[in-house]
Specification:
By secondary structure, the protein is α/β, with parallel strands linked by helices. The protein is built from 29 helices and 20 strands. β16 and β17 form a beta hairpin. Bound molecules: adenosine-5'-triphosphate and magnesium ion.
């Protein structure tokens, strides 16, 4: 068995090696020019290469047709970059800004001389985003370079200044930058100054191989050394060559290896300011100092940095840092504030791990709701739960009406939202903890809520923050989950739930319309004309607290709403109008309340009830994603909390 596996794998190795065997280009300037003539984008600059690679995956515009666009982005068109969309969620606004930066920079605008700074709270996805951007470079394929050049420089640098104007006219390509000290030295010593003889080859971007990607980790101030950025003079070679001979240079700093691609500054403002000065020349002059006494070295690359808000505020407050501040384009990367999208983040992270267990319905939803609630700023216009739902694009029904709160107003009221609160990592740890505590290899909304409460108590030190979070877990979400669960169990109880809802809807509409127009309703069985059924109408309306004279308006509103929809050729069903939908749901919930109370208590079931109960459990399993254990757990929870015998 293992032999065949190995044999199979060896075959794969062989194939892989063969694909790698394709001949690498190795030639001179003449051959390179012929390639460039055919493909003008070959000597492309770093920002443009990156931009083009990312958009080569396509762009989807979320426009009027998309519900997320209407409800969440104020109807403004949002570009979604496909390269990011299957891995990053609820981050469209930040991504759009990042791409706007790259776009301007790719046209050699001012942005090409600026640092892109991602600013956001812990675990908001900054590092993941930068990794993904680096991945785009890696897949962008090969690029040409001077053979043996430690900074992989563009072969067109060989062309002397005096010929460049002519070159630009001929090819329509502007050449930026000059030979690095090492290549200049080699040109003179190895090729006698004949730049047409200098060898040119190709290579490809590699994060791990440090080709075109340089990373600068935050440095301890005591060991901070600019060689990390710009390389050094190799002491072992100083014996071989005279002082200031370029051959003694080791150009292996981040700006050297990141030439042509990306230089990333991790936690950038943890570094001392002196250390960052290279950033200024690299952006503004597109030059970095060389170690020793050599001339400045041309640099073409995208500089990406990230940090959190505390470090940024500290850095910003020192006026001596102005020179750097002026060269920074800041993009906030807040936490996701749409819980539907937040759920997708957890799903992504869970799929990546070896995690194998049953996740009961609504488990991740409750965790995501908690995360979002903790991140929202309090509003004067809506309570936290309502605000959370509006941010998720949901319709809020209040006293029989759709609550009119403009998402735009909520956003304006809370500037810079999502820069604090519970992080994605915090939630993932709670998920792990809930699983570790489970004896049945599952997590449920109940166990995740317990794990979150425990973790908040253990880890949030600030008293106020802790209280703030606990109130969401112990009250808001406890109630919210019960209401979700009650509806779900009702659906499982009521056979043919959809049909029943639809029939209530049709009846309601017929009678309400007759009431509004002062006409009669035709009985479907006897074909007799009859008066609108007032008790029936009221039994629906009272479900959402509509009483007395408010009923007239409600009935008129619904009739005209549905009529308008039909006139536009749109179809209507029981879900079409939020308030009525809620009333119908509540009515159905109420209709099974008694049976729910009796049947979910194992002690009091008789044979007939037992049958009904089993059918309900089976529906939960077949149609709603539970397994036997999780169904049992949530039903027990419901019977203890929802239908307590009073
Ligand atoms: N909006 C999001 N969409 C998809 N994944 C996300 C999102 N936000 C966070 N993540 C995921 O959460 C994890 C943590 O994010 P990451 O390490 O990138 O955060 P960070 O902002 O760099 O935090 P820190 O400041 O602590 O370094 C990553 O695996 C990332 O993929
Ligand atoms: Mg990070």
């Amino acid at each position: 068995m293992s032999k065949t596996k190995t044999n199979k794998f060896l075959e794969n190795i062989k194939k892989h090696r063969e694909t790698k065997k394709t001949e690498k280009f190795y030639g001179n300037l003449e051959e390179y020019l012929r390639i460039v003539e055919k493909e003008k984008d070959i000597p492309i600059l770093a920002h443009k290469r990156l931009f083009q690679q990312i958009i080569s995956h396509g762009i989807t515009v979320l426009d009027e047709g998309n519900p997320r666009c209407n409800k969440l982005f104020d109807g403004e068109k949002v570009k979604v970059y496909n390269y990011f969309s299957d891995q990053f969620f609820g981050m469209e606004r930040s991504l759009q800004k990042v791409m706007r930066f790259l776009h301007s920079a790719s046209m050699r605008g001012e942005e090409s001389r600026q640092v892109l700074l991602l600013l956001g709270p812990v675990g908001a996805g900054k590092s993941a985003l930068i990794e993904h951007v680096k991945g785009a470079l890696e897949e962008s394929g090969k690029f040409y370079k001077l053979a043996g050049c430690p900074i992989n420089e563009e072969p067109l640098h060989l062309i002397p200044r005096s010929l460049r104007e002519n070159f630009e006219k001929t090819y329509g390509i502007r050449i930026e930058g000059d030979l690095c000290p090492i290549c200049r030295h080699r040109l003179l010593s190895d090729h006698d100054g004949d730049y047409t003889a200098f060898p040119i080859t190709e290579t490809s971007f590699s994060v791990r191989g440090r080709v075109g990607v340089g990373v600068v980790p935050p440095m301890d101030p005591n060991t901070q050394d600019t060689s990390l950025l710009i390389g050094s003079e190799d002491i072992s070679k100083l014996d071989l060559y005279p002082e200031d001979d370029p051959r003694a240079l080791s150009l292996n700093g981040a700006f050297n290896v990141g030439n042509r691609g990306i230089v990333e500054f991790v936690e950038v403002f943890k570094n001392e300011i002196e250390f960052l000065h290279t950033m200024i020349t690299a952006t503004q002059e597109k030059n970095v100092p060389s170690p020793g006494k050599q001339a400045m070295i041309y640099f073409d690359g995208v500089i990406l940095a990230h940090c959190n808000e505390a470090e940024w505020n500290k850095f910003k407050s020192e006026h001596t840092n102005e020179a750097i501040l002026d060269r920074i384009v800041r993009v906030n990367v807040p936490y996701c504030l749409e819980y539907d999208q937040e759920i997708k983040i957890y799903e992504k992270l869970i799929n990546r791990s070896d995690f194998e267990c049953h996740i009961a319905p609504h488990t991740l939803e409750i965790a995501a709701m908690f995360a979002v609630l903790s991140r929202l700023k309090p509003s004067n216009k809506a309570d936290p739960l309502t605000k959370m739902k509006i941010y998720n694009g949901e319709e809020i029904v209040e006293k029989g009406n759709i609550k009119k709160v403009d998402i735009k107003d909520l956003r304006e009221e809370a500037e810079d939202e999502g820069m604090s609160g519970i992080s994605t990592r915090f939630i993932m740890k709670a998920i792990d903890a809930a699983l570790a505590d489970s004896t049945k290899n599952m997590i449920t909304p109940i166990s995740i809520r317990e794990a979150l409460i425990k973790q908040v108590k253990e880890q949030i030190v600030n008293q106020d923050d802790r209280k703030y979070c606990l109130q969401f877990l112990q009250k808001t979400l406890h109630e919210e989950y019960l209401s979700i669960l009650e509806k779900e169990i009702t659906k499982a109880f009521v056979t043919a739930y959809e049909e029943q809802a639809e029939s209530l809807f049709n009846n309601y509409l017929d009678h309400a319309e007759a009431y509004v127009n002062n006409t009669k309703v035709k009985d479907t069985v006897t074909s007799e004309d009859m008066e609108p059924d007032e008790p029936f109408l009221a039994s629906i309306e009272e479900q959402i607290g509509i009483k007395g004279s408010a009923k007239n308006n409600f009935r008129a509103d619904i009739s005209s709403y549905m009529f308008a929809k039909l006139r536009r050729g749109e179809s209507i069903d029981w879900r079409s109008y939020g308030p009525l939908r809620e009333a119908i749901e509540n009515k159905l919930v109420a209709s099974v309340k008694d049976i729910s109370r009796i049947v979910t208590k194992s002690k009091s079931r008789d044979v007939k009830q037992q049958k009904k109960f089993s059918a309900m459990v089976q529906t939960l399993i077949d149609n709603y994603g539970y397994n036997g254990d999780s169904a049992e757990e949530v039903i027990k929870f419901a019977s203890n909390n929802l239908w307590r015998d009073s």
